[in-house]
Amino acid sequence: MKQSSTSVVVMSDAERRERLRNRIYAVFPVVSVLLLILLWFLAAGAENSTFPSPVDIWNRFLLLMEKPIKQLNLFGHIWASLLRVFIALAFAWLLGISFGILIGWNKKANALLGPLFTAFRSVPPLAWVPLMTMWFGTGEFPKILIVFIGALMPVVVNTQAGISNVQNMYLNVGTIFHANKRQMLFEIAIPSALDAIFAGVRTSTSAGWMVVLAAEMLGGKSGIGFLITRGMDSGDYALCLLSMVCIGLVGALLAIITQLLERMVCPWTAKKSN
Predict the structure, then answer these.
(1) pTM of the full structure
(2) 241-261: pLDDT as tens digits
């Protein structure tokens, strides 16, 4: 006759505290959102308040879906902004990573082009708006170009820092195994700098999203920035706040997507954070 044996797992006090701490951290985001909504209702319900309530925002959303502005509903305007950002980011990442590797790896290129880039980087992206408007008008190309300028800087800076700060130990190993310059760059330096490169990708994504909204507010016929300007000009506070809520939600979604992309390409970053 066989006896069934059961194993009892006994957790230590440290493990219990760690599990309790993780549960508390998981609840904190929900609590913060509930507190924000509560404050929102209190601000909207104050006497003589013109601040739209969450109900007003929802009703304005339904109205915008029923009666589009410039033949676009809310999701159409969000897509118009995202499309500009995606096009600009594709060029910013391609050129920014390439240029960052060049000035981070080649000392002659850094001496020649580094000071020019530093001076160019000191100019805020929105400072280019008047020139872009005079040169190219108020169409799609100047908006995308402004976003490209804003998204380019973080990629170049982080890529250059990652390439130039590769540990000498890795390079010495390559030298021992008789690696040529191309192998040292593509098989040692660039993989070692992936963390820094993706940090620039994350920063450039958020920067591009902010810049496109500002560019649309200065001139445009579609996009979330245009909706804010439209609401401001017409005194439609609900439309302005609805657009701001969408900006926050889309920005958070972009941050999550870039973080997931980083974990796919650089899985060791998730282990470091844990």
Answers:
(1) 0.82
(2) 999 999 999 999 998 898 888
